[in-house]
Task: inverse folding
């Protein structure tokens, strides 16, 4: 790699960019849908929860149940909002961090591993919030959270974190070797 | 050794992935407690016409009428008359009786549900906690009014509440121990309702 190359920012590959842009587009569609179908979503979630009183600990007393349902609906809505925000953020992070890796990490296999982990981890992580929201009416807040954690947040979020540390390590090494 | 270290490092790096943000939830007023607060503030400001309108059209009166068979006879009429006459103390007493009756019914229902031995322990603990939260939400609204009229009853309710809370929040939680304080809450509430209704009849 020449000095001239290192001073020029290199774009990541098109599939990586496509995934990042798709996740940002998904965030925008998700945000708009949340507003457009707010009432329908809340009605569906409420109806689904009422059909599963044991799952949600409903006791048949309005003064008790309305708080349980309110908390679940707030968390259901929070999951959708957090998907919107994280998908926007992670899409941008994928573009920026893979660009840094593509430009500044010299070792081919190491660079490919960083790009792959950031792309897969970054794109998958926000979907955990969508999954959590979808699971709340069926499994409750905590059980839904545990499922989303082990199915999405920990593996994908972990991949993104490991990749970012690998990138940080590569950059630090480059600085030391200068 | 190296493999173990690598695993430990990986675990340390990945651990933050489990600490994702999932939002917060704060219990909100329901339409009855919201209506009560509006009424209370109107009475404090001596805006009796506003208070009367809020009572006539609000969720509190709808609920009061729906529960009329469990409440002292003529409670609705006495609250309306107090608001009409610009008598905040009598109106507050009527409203207090309504909430104390709601608390009594919640305590009795909680006791009934906790007595059902079929449910798993974890479910009974959660049920007990949820009932206590609902009881406290209502009691918190009228604690001052109850204390003003019967300080001993107010202290008894608070102590019984703490005992009940201790039994489901302590380690290990024991929902069966919650039943006696719940019965105590119901008993004291019945006494407050009876005493307030008697004094209301005497004053009228």
Result:
């Amino acid at each position: 790699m020449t000095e001239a190359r290192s001073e020029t920012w290199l774009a990541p590959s098109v599939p990586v960019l496509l995934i990042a842009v798709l996740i940002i587009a998904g965030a925008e569609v998700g945000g708009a849908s949340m507003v457009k179908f707010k009432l329908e979503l809340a009605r569906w979630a409420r109806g689904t929860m009422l059909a599963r009183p044991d799952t949600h600990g409903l006791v048949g007393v309005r003064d008790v149940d309305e708080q349980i349902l309110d908390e679940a609906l707030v968390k259901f809505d929070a999951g959708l909002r957090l998907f919107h925000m994280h998908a926007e953020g992670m899409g941008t992070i994928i573009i920026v961090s893979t660009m840094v890796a593509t430009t500044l990490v010299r070792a081919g296999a190491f660079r490919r591993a960083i790009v792959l982990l950031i792309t897969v981890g970054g794109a998958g992580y926000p979907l955990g919030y969508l999954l959590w929201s979808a699971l709340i009416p069926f499994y409750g807040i905590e059980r839904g959270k545990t499922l989303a954690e082990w199915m999405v947040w920990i593996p994908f979020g972990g991949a993104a974190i490991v990749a970012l540390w690998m990138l940080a390590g590569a950059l630090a090494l480059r600085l030391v070797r200068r | 050794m190296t493999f173990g270290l690598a695993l430990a490092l990986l675990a340390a790096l990945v651990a933050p992935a489990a600490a994702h943000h999932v939002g917060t939830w704060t219990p909100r007023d329901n339409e009855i407690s919201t209506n009560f607060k509006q009424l209370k503030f109107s009475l404090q400001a001596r805006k009796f016409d506003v208070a009367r309108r809020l009572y006539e059209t609000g969720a509190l009166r709808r609920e009061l009428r729906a529960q009329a068979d469990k409440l002292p006879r003529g409670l609705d009429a006495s609250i309306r008359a107090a608001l009409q006459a610009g008598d905040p103390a009598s109106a507050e007493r009527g409203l207090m009786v309504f909430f104390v009756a709601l608390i009594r019914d919640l305590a009795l229902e909680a006791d009934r549900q906790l007595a059902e031995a079929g449910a798993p322990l974890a479910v009974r603990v959660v049920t007990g906690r949820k009932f206590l939260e609902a009881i406290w939400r209502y009691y918190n609204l009228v604690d001052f009014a109850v204390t003003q009229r019967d300080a001993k009853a107010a202290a008894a309710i608070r102590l019984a509440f703490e005992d009940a809370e201790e039994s489901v929040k302590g380690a290990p939680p024991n929902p069966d121990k919650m039943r006696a304080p719940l019965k105590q809450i119901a008993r004291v509430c019945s006494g407050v309702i009876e005493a307030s209704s008697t004094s209301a009849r005497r004053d009228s």
